[in-house]
Amino acid sequence: MPTSPLADLAQQTADLLSTISALSTLDALRDAEASLTGKRSILASLQKSLGTLDPEARKAAGAQLQEARRVVEAALEERRALLRRDARQLSLEADRLDLGDVIASDVRWPLAVGHPGLIALTQRELEDVFIGMGFTVADGPEVESDWYNFEALNIPPAHPARGLWDTFYVDLGEPETVVLRTHTSPTQIHLMERAVATDSLPIHSVMPGRCFRRDTPDASHLYSFHQIEGLVVDRGISFGDLAGVIETFTRAYFGPDISSRLRPGYFPFTEPSAEFEVTCTICRGAGCRTCSSSGWLELGGCGMLDPAVLEAVGIDGDQWSGFAFGFGIDRCAQMRHEVSDMRALIENDVRFLGQFS
Ligand code: DAH
User: Fold this and answer.
1) What is the value of pTM for the model shown?
2) Residue 104: its pLDDT value, please?
3) In this model, does residue 259 exceed pLDDT 90?
4) Atom of ligand 1 at shortest range from CA of 182
5) CA separation for the pair 162, 351 (Å, rounded)
6) Atom number, ligand 1, closest to the C-alpha of residue 183
7) Which of 129, 142, 217, 263 is packed most tightly, with the most Cβ within 10 A?
8) Domain spans of the chain?
9) Ligand 1: which atom is nearest the Cα of residue 229?
10) Angle, to 10 degrees, between the axis of helix 239-254 and the axis of helix 329-336?
11) Position 196 pLDDT exceeds 70
C-alpha cells in the first residue's frame, strides 16, 4: 500500500504552528501569510497531492487536511489579534503626554516669559543716573487742572505760548478746566507747594511720567509719550549749576564721547531759558541726515526758575533760586538705541521687544 501524502501531516501542522507563534510583528505576519496558508503553502501542495488517491481515501484525507488548515488559520488569526493589541499598547505609551515633564522642562515651557519694555527700562536707567547725582524721584498726576498744567507755570489763559502744547481737554467747564498733562512740568508745582507746606526746602528731584498731546503719531511723535522733569530749588543756585547737571547727566547716560550744549530758547516758566542739545548719537558729531549735518540733536528744555513761578507757589525768591529741565524719555530710548521710528516703542511687536530683554 502506497504511503499516504498526509503521513507527516501532524508534524507539518506542528511546524506551522510553531512558526506562527514565533512571528513577532504584524509586518512579519503579513509577509509570512502567503507561505503559511496561501497557494504556495505546504497545505496547498498537500491538497493537490490528494488527487492521486482513490475517492474513498481522498474524502477521508480531505477532511483531515481541512481540519489541519482550520487549526493553522485559527492560530494565525489569534496571533494577529495579539500582535495588534501589543502594537496599540506601544503607540499609546509613545503618545503619552506627561504634564509633569512639560512643566519641568525649560525647553518645552509653553509660555514666553515677559520683561519690562524699552520705555520702562529707559525710565529706570534715567532715574538711576539722577539718583547717583543726589536727586530724589517724585511722581505726579496725569490729569491736571489748568492751574497746574499752565497758570502756575506762568502761562495765563490767553497767553500765546499755550499754542506750544496741543492739549487734550478733559473738561472745559466751571469751576476749572481739566486737561491731560501736556508735560511733566506741573509736577514741579506740586513739589514746590508740598515743600512750602511742610517747610522742607531745598528740593533736588526728578519726576518721570506719561504726558499727552494732540499729535498725529509719526516716526518722531506719539500722542502719549514720557518725559522726565528735573527741579532744583536751593540757596545760591546759578545757571552754571544747571549747565553742570545737564553735562554730567549727558555723559553718564549716553557715554563719555557724547556732550551737551545749551542754546537760547523760550519757555514761560524759566528765565533765562535754553534748549539743550547733545552730540548726535548716530554720527557722533560728524554730521549726518538725522542731525541735519549739525552734529547735534535737540533733547529738551531748561532754564532758571522764573520769579513768577516761585511767587505762584509762595517761595521767597530773595532767599531761594533754582533751575528746571525737562526732556523726553522715549526720545532718549530712540537716540540711545537708534530706533528709527518711535511708533516701534508702543506697537508691542515681540521681534522688537525681544531685543531689550
Ligand atoms: N515742559 C517743557 C515741554 O514739554 C520742557 C521744559 C522746558 C521743562 C524747560 C522744563 C524747563 O522744566 O525748564 O516742552
Assistant:
1) 0.70
2) 59
3) yes
4) 4
5) 39
6) 4
7) 129
8) 9-96, 118-356
9) 12
10) 50
11) yes
Residue type, 45: S
- Strand, coil or helix: 322: strand
pLDDT digits (tens, 9 = 90+) for 171-182: 887 788 999 999
User: Which residue minimizes the CA distance to atom 13 of ligand 1?
Assistant: 302
What cell does 170 get? 478733559
| Ligand 1 midpoint to CA 327 (Å) | 7
First to last CA, the chain: 97
CA 300 to chain centre: 29
The pLDDT value recorded for residue 275 is: 98
pLDDT of residue 102: 58
Q: Look at domain 118-356 and name its CATH class.
A: alpha beta
Q: Measure 45 CA to ligand 1 centroid, in angstroms.
A: 106
- CA of 326 from ligand 1 middle (Å) equals 5
Mutate to test the pocket of ligand 1, among 150, 192, 267 (most ligand atoms within 8 A of CB): 267
Q: Ligand 1 pocket by C-beta < 6 Å: which residues?
A: 183, 185, 229, 267, 270, 300-303, 324-326
Instruction: Please state the rounded mean pLDDT for residues 130-134.
Output: 97
